[in-house]
Structures are given as structure tokens and as C-alpha cells.
Amino acid sequence: MKPFLLLGTRAENYAADAEYRSFLRFGGLAEGDLRRVRLEAEPLPELDLADYSGIFLGGSPFNSSDPEEEKSDVQVRVERELGGLLDRVVEEDYPFFGACYGVGTLGRHQGAVIDSTYAEPVGAVEVTLTGDGAADPLLAGLPSSFAAYVGHKEACAALPGSAVLLASSATCPVQMFRVGANVYATQFHPELDVEALVGRIRTYRHAGYFPPEEADAYIERARALVVDRPATILRTFVTRYARG
């Protein structure tokens, strides 16, 4: 099988490595089947898309909607490189799955309105499939609504005409969309289980997602949640697109 590629942007080694392990686990992949590039540490290398089965984009501390003058040089470079990659991905309708940061990057690339209107605190929300979502092969087998982990400072406030809305929630109208037949983005995190979420809470307690003194309360609430359906999306993506 040709490997999949994971693009990450997390500078914290613990968070970056945990994210990689999560995509391995829930994608049903061995380490040799998932290569990764940490874009916060090195430029995106020249990629021949034919060498891969598909691309995953992990979450990020970056926000696409931040004012340009407030973005670091690293963020500006990462966004430029991802924009160039998405030019090719969308043109070729190449298998792509972006989790959380995928909404900001793919949405912005396609002309969506990305802002803080529908930011959601760290926790779980009830995600509901649209009619197009229920018919999408990547979501086959999922119930019409399910719990999913979220935690983001920006979201898609208005989709462009090129996108198909697949899932929504009461607090964030765009939880998942598709461009073409094979390019996907979710606002929720299908790669997280409760322990991974707890790790994120600890790692980013001072990153502005919640008051740092409330981290233990967020962890306690997280441990009381049952979120077990979204991860199947990653396995379906791998099964559907694995080639070679």
C-alpha cells in the first residue's frame, strides 16, 4: 500500500507525537503506512501526490482568521505552503482529510468566511448529518447524530458555493464539508479519544482555549463523556483511498 501523509503544525513534541499516534490508531495504520511532516519545524518538501494514498492535515494552534500582521513568520509560511498544496489537491480532487484546522485552511482556500463567530469550548457536542452527509460514503454506518470532540477559536461562518455541507451542530453550523468528491474537512476531531483530549487540555491550558485555572474541571468533564463514533471516519477514509 502506498503510505498516507500526515501534515502537522504542533510545536509541542508531546502533542505532535500524540496526534500522530492517534491517526495511526484510528486509521488502522502501521508506522510505515503514515509518513508525517511537521510543518512548524521544516518547509513542506516537494511532493509527488502519486507517491501517496491520501493526505491528512492535523489540528493546529494556528488560526487562519488571525490578522495577517499578527501571524508569525512560521504561520505565514505554513499557510502559503498549504495554499499551494491545496491548489493541486482541489484541482486533482485528490484524497484529503483535514481535522479542525482543515476547516480553516480548506475553507479559506475556497473562499469561505472563517471567523470567531462559532468558536466552541473544549468538550463534546452533538453533531448531526445533513442529507448530503448521510449519503456520503465516508460517513457510511454513522448514525444521523453522534457526539464528537471540539475545541476551536475559529470556524466557518459561511460556506462557499464549491463546498457541500455534510454535518452541523447547534453551536457551529459547519462541522464538516466536502469539496469535489474526495476533499474533506471537519471542525470536530475524529482522531481524539478521551485520553488524547485530556492530553490536549494539559498541553494547551495556557493557549487561550479556556481559563487555565479551570483545566482540571475540563478534564473531569471530558472523562465523563462517551465519544466513540467519529473515529470510524478515519478508518473509512483509509479503507476507501488506500491504493498501490
In words, what does this structure look like?
By secondary structure, this protein is α/β, with parallel strands linked by helices. The chain has a single domain, classed as Rossmann fold (3-Layer(aba) Sandwich). It contains seven helices and eleven strands. The chain has helices at residues 13-27, 73-92, 101-110, 131-135, 194-203, 215-223, 232-241; strands at residues 4-8, 34-38, 54-57, 96-99, 113-115, 120-129, 145-152, 155-158, 163-169, 176-179, 183-186. The strands form two sheets. A nine-stranded mixed sheet has the order 2-1-3-4-11-10-9-6-7, sandwiched between helices. The protein has a two-stranded antiparallel sheet with strand order 5-8. A hairpin with a 3-residue loop joins strand 10 (176-179) and strand 11. It is globular, with a radius of gyration of 17 Å. The N and C termini lie close together (5 Å).
Using brief descriptors, characterize the structure shown.
244 residues, alpha/beta, Rossmann fold, nine-stranded mixed beta sheet, two-stranded antiparallel sheet, 11 strands, globular, ChyE-like
Largest sheet: 9 strands, mixed
CATH architecture: 3-Layer(aba) Sandwich
Q: What is the helix tally?
A: 7
Fourth CATH level, the homologous superfamily:
Class I glutamine amidotransferase (GATase) domain
Strand order of the largest sheet: 2-1-3-4-11-10-9-6-7
Are there runs of 5+ residues with pLDDT below 50, and where? none
Helix content: 25-40%
If you consult CATH, what is the topology? Answer: Rossmann fold
